[in-house]
Design a protein that fits this description.
alpha+beta, seven-stranded mixed beta sheet, 57% helix, 12 strands, 492 residues
């Protein structure tokens, strides 16, 4: 037994771990994946923005320096091409920022004539900026990998444009992108570090939230397990002030409802068992007496047979009541609706009970209206409801020694009141008397489902069953049914 309990505990612990891992997996896949995707997109946008900013800034600087040189030499030489050439050679040769930038002087065909770096180059330097500047007679820029040095460089070219619109030469400013790329890489590294830090904070926050969420989940799981094992009425405590708290309150309400239903079911089984045992004992006892020949006198034999017949009828009514309850629960409580005058049925039941209860010292009074309207309903089912109310009045209000039945019309409805003058129903029980299996503090015989069936039958007729009671003054049970008034041709 101990080993079985240990095995069960191990299985429950494994299930809890698997459940937690599953929640953690979904949490990571949902929250962390989304956060990672957003951070990667932000980092890519940041890197692209920084790269674009630095490249555009460098391009503007190179273009401005080349344009400044062209403007200076053009003003200095006053459109004298030879003077421009000599001035350009001198300007390039003496360029002060040659350590950071390379300044080149190109002829009208784009060939390199002089470079501030002192290197010589035959032909046209590498880059699309030179042909673009020649073609458009305007400034142009390019960046790419230098085939000689292998470095990534950026170049800007500004042409000397003569009065006739022709290009007489060009100034080209070239810079390595190494320092710029290093700066971009540093900023990208900082961005990656910040993203990693944010992701770590999100992960730690998620772990804390997950840990906080798993505590009530385990409590809910443990409580649900206790309920599944039959320990009804257990509660989760404390109840958290959020959606999980709402789930806890719902589970607590469910536990209480199951506990009440279980108690009602047990009370019902106990009550029905007792109700069945009493007539069965009477039938069995008198049957054995008659079979043994113990009832020799005809009067005693007749008495025994009367009891057997009465108790058998009582059993039949109980079985029929249980069958009706089963049909009601499954939604198959059939009604055979027709246009009827219910007055004769009320009179039959009243006069049938009148003689039998007079022997018990109870007076049954009947106050009938002059003329009652017809109704649409199932005669047998409505008779069943009226019998149930009258039987309850006699059982529960018998100490009042008087039961009163009253019928009248009120606002196009047929009203049937059954009143007893007994002890009444306690106020805290009155709201539950029509619930299935409910018997309250009453010690009278019965299964506790009669009023539940009667209430359902009244609802199916479009009417209602009302129960009113005052302690010490008695109880009034009222059937309210839609009546046919002023429309003799009304169809079902």
């Amino acid at each position: 037994m101990a080993q079985a309990r240990e095995t069960q505990a191990a299985e429950e612990a494994l299930y809890t771990r698997e459940e937690e891992q599953g929640i953690r997996h979904h949490w990571v896949m949902g929250s962390m994946a989304a956060s990672l995707t957003i951070l990667i997109l932000c980092m890519l946008l940041f890197v692209c923005g920084v790269t674009t900013y630095y490249y555009l800034s460098l391009r503007a600087e190179l273009t401005d320096r080349a344009a400044l040189a062209v403007e200076y030499l053009t003003k200095y030489a006053r459109d004298d091409q030879e003077a421009i050439r000599l001035g350009a050679e001198s300007y390039v040769a003496d360029y002060p920022d040659r350590d950071r930038l390379e300044l080149q002087y190109l002829d009208a065909g784009g060939s390199l004539l002089l470079s501030s770096s002192g290197r010589s180059m035959d032909g046209i330097p590498q880059g699309s900026d030179i042909p673009d500047a020649l073609e458009d007679a305007d400034r142009a820029a390019w960046h790419g990998r230098d085939r000689d040095t292998g470095e990534t460089v950026m170049a800007a070219t500004v042409p000397f444009v003569a009065a006739d619109g022709s290009v007489s030469g060009m100034i080209r400013c070239v810079s390595s992108l190494r320092a710029t790329n290093v700066q971009i890489v540093k900023l990208s590294g900082i961005a990656i570090f910040v993203c990693a830090l944010v992701l770590l904070l999100v992960y730690l926050s998620n772990r804390r939230s997950l840990r906080a969420m798993m505590v009530p989940i385990r409590q809910i799981n443990d409580t649900a397990q206790l309920i599944a094992e039959g320990l009804y009425g257990v509660h989760i405590d404390p109840v958290y002030p959020d959606e999980i708290g709402e789930l806890c309150r719902t589970l607590n309400d469910m536990s209480d409802a199951i506990s009440r239903s279980e108690k009602l079911k047990n009370d019902f089984i106990s009550s029905v068992s007792h109700e069945l045992r009493t007539p069965l004992t009477a039938i069995g006892g008198w049957g054995e007496t008659l079979l043994a020949g113990g009832a020799g006198e005809s009067e005693e034999t007749r008495r025994g047979l009367t009891i057997i017949t009465s108790e058998a009828g009582r059993l039949a009514r109980m079985v029929e009541e249980l069958l009706d309850f089963s049909r009601m629960e499954s939604g198959h409580l059939a009604m055979r609706m027709e246009r009827i005058d219910f007055t004769p049925d009320i009179e039959d039941v009243v006069f049938m009970y009148m003689d039998s209860i007079r022997r018990e010292g109870i007076i049954l009074e009947y106050d009938e209206a002059d003329e009652l309207p017809e109704i649409i309903g199932d005669r047998n089912r409505l008779r069943q409801v009226f019998l149930n109310l009258l039987d309850n009045a006699i059982k529960h209000g018998g100490e009042g020694k008087r039961v009163r039945v009253e019928t009248y019309v009120d606002a196009q409805t047929l009203v049937i009141n059954v009143r007893d003058f007994g002890a009444g129903i306690p106020a805290d029980e009155l709201a539950h008397v029509k619930e299935r299996f409910y018997k309250g503090s009453s010690k009278a015989r019965g299964s506790g489902i009669g009023l539940a069936i009667a209430d359902e039958i009244m609802k199916l007729h479009g009417g209602r069953l009302e129960i009113q009671s005052i302690m010490g003054q008695g109880t009034v049970a009222t059937m309210v049914l839609p009546a046919i008034i002023g429309d003799p041709d009304m169809e079902l």
